[in-house]
Amino acid sequence: MLPALCLGLVSLSTTFVWGQNPQTIHLQSRVMTPPGSSLRRRALPPSNVPLADFFLGTDLQWFGNISVGTPPQDITVVFDTGSSSLEFASTLCGQACSQQIQFDPSKSSTFVDGGRVTSITFATGVGVDPVVGSNYKLTLRSGVDTVTVGGLKANSVNLFLITDQTPTFNVDPFSGIQGLSATAQGFFASLINQGLPSLFSLFLTPNAIGHAELTIGGVDHTKFNGDPTFATLPAGSSSTWRLVSPRLSVNGKTTAVLNTQRSIIFDSGTSNILFSTATTEAIYSLISPDIKANPAEPGTYGIACSRISSLPAVIDITFTSQAGTPFNLTIPSNELSVGAFTNNPTLCQTLINAFDGLDLVGGSLLKHYYSIWDVGARRLGFAPI
After folding, report:
1. Which residues does UniProt assign to the signal peptide (predicted)?
2. Same structural domain for residues 65 and 207?
3. Quick check: is 351 in a domain?
4. Is 290 a catalytic residue?
């Protein structure tokens, strides 16, 4: 999920010159540790955290357990690379958080009330529906407490208690959000200071496969074969996980609009894909002219569900590796539909929502790759799964 305040941070002025056609990289099957990786430091061992899949017609979110306070209280959170802070439902929230596990600060001997009241409005939400106005908003109160993730304990972590939230959050099977931005903050920064390698990895699998996993401080080589391909974050990325792409293609074809450089955010807390209206419609034009905007839900597009299985819809997004060579991250055709519209069950929503000013990939792409988020080396790595 991406807070609305991040939207002013996504422009780039980097230029690339391409002398070859990008190839989808086929990796050789061997286990390795990338040179220069922050895996070298082992004062704290990496830890694996199992993740559950919130599936509702498509894979919406992956979430897992953390514990907060003394004695520890278990909380379920989405591990979200599109945000940076930790916030979760609390007993201060009352009826607005009635369907979620609520942290009780009065039962933690290590909790310190920060007293600051603030709010977050998100630009992307939990599911595949576009955000409308402030319909994804949290009201928060600051605090400090002990946080444990995967058995790794961090003391005096800054966090936020949810004291109110829009109804869109109360239906979720998790209670909060743990941000994992490109700048280490909160519990992750504390663990790095204790000697944990400054990276994490995500194995976000489709519901049919299961066994999704977060690895804090390392890479689980059992989840993929071959060498990951790494790409460096551009200068000025700050806390945003993003890479520069010179072009997009669909079924091997491109257009003038798609053959344009853009900065793309990688957000594990967003279910599908968001591009500008021009980019979205250029992609759909190469799939089928029958994919049309759905005026009932502005920003979404759809096509008759009966057509989905017959449409080739392979989307390749080109990036540059650390070695200077182009490579593709591919969204397969079976991701074209994210499920039928609630108000029209014969019309299937397609995976890309139009959002001018934002280019972002989420679960529709990430669940087809093992992803390595290297904070220390300022890079992203990908290996097909």
Report:
1. 1-19
2. yes
3. yes
4. no
State how far the Cα of 309 lies from the Cα of 157, in Å rounded to an integer: 48
The pLDDT tens digits of the residues spanning 214-230 come to 999 999 999 998 999 99
For range 229-245, the mean pLDDT: 96
Residue 313 vs residue 56, higher pLDDT = 313
Q: How confident is the model at residue 34 (pLDDT cuts 50, 70, 90)?
A: very low
Res. 40: pLDDT tops 50: no
**How crowded is residue 21: how many other Cβ atoms within 10 Å of its Cβ?**
7
For residue 122, what pLDDT is reported? 84
Q: Which structural domain range is residue 200 located in? A: 48-216
In a domain, 6, yes or no: no
| 8 falls within a domain | no
What's the pLDDT band for 13 if we cut at 50, 70, 90? very low
Catalytic status, residue 172: no
| pLDDT given at position 17 | 30
For 357-380, the pLDDT digits (tens) are 999 999 999 999 999 999 999 999
Query: Measured between alpha carbons, how far is 385 from 328 in angstroms, rounded to an integer?
Result: 15
Among the listed residues 267, 316, 359, 374, the single catalytic one is: 267
Identify the pLDDT of residue 133.
Answer: 65
Among the candidates 175, 194, 216, a domain finishes at 216
> Considering 200, 216, 232, which residue would you say is the last residue of a domain?
216
Residues 57 and 339: beta-carbon distance below 8 Å? yes
pLDDT 10s digits, 145-156: 999 999 999 999
Show the tokens assigned to 156. 């005096």
Which residues make beta-bridge pairs with 371?
A: 202, 382
The CATH number given to whatever domain includes residue 82 is 2.40.70.10
Q: Out of 80, 129, 172, 316, pick the active-site residue.
A: 80
The count of domains in the chain is 2
Residues 61 and 193 in one domain: yes
